[in-house]
Design a protein that fits this description.
5 helices; mainly alpha
């Protein structure tokens, strides 16, 4: 008798909801990848503002919807388009580093990138 092969999906340790320690870990990775002190200061400020906003929202998964909501938040504060792009660029780097560290799925990071580039 032929037995069915059972395939189990390997459970990924990547998360969709990032907690403060995860965000701090990804933030440190982003800042360590930068050489310029001015770039570090700008990215630190942008990431800190995103983390403050993200943690103030009720248990949001880090995905494209969150990036769109954050973009709307920045636009509602009447920030200049260049400032918004800079802050979204920091969020994109944060998503990539979180994915590289295994804290976030690569697909989620790619979705965040797509929303940041618009």
């Amino acid at each position: 008798m032929k037995q069915k092969a059972s395939f189990r999906r390997k459970r990924s340790s990547a998360k969709s909801v990032l907690r403060l320690p995860d965000l701090e870990h990804a933030k440190a990775a982003v800042l360590n990848s930068l050489n310029s002190a001015d770039a570090k200061r700008g990215y630190r400020h942008a990431i800190d503002e995103f983390v403050d906003w993200y943690c103030s929202e009720p248990r949001l998964a880090f995905n494209r919807i969150v990036v769109l909501r954050y973009r709307s938040h920045l636009e509602s504060n009447q920030l200049a388009p260049g400032t918004i792009n800079l802050r979204l660029g920091a969020v994109r780097r944060l998503a990539y580093e979180a994915a590289d560290c295994g804290l976030l799925s690569g697909l989620t990071a790619e979705q965040a990138r797509c929303q940041c580039d618009r």
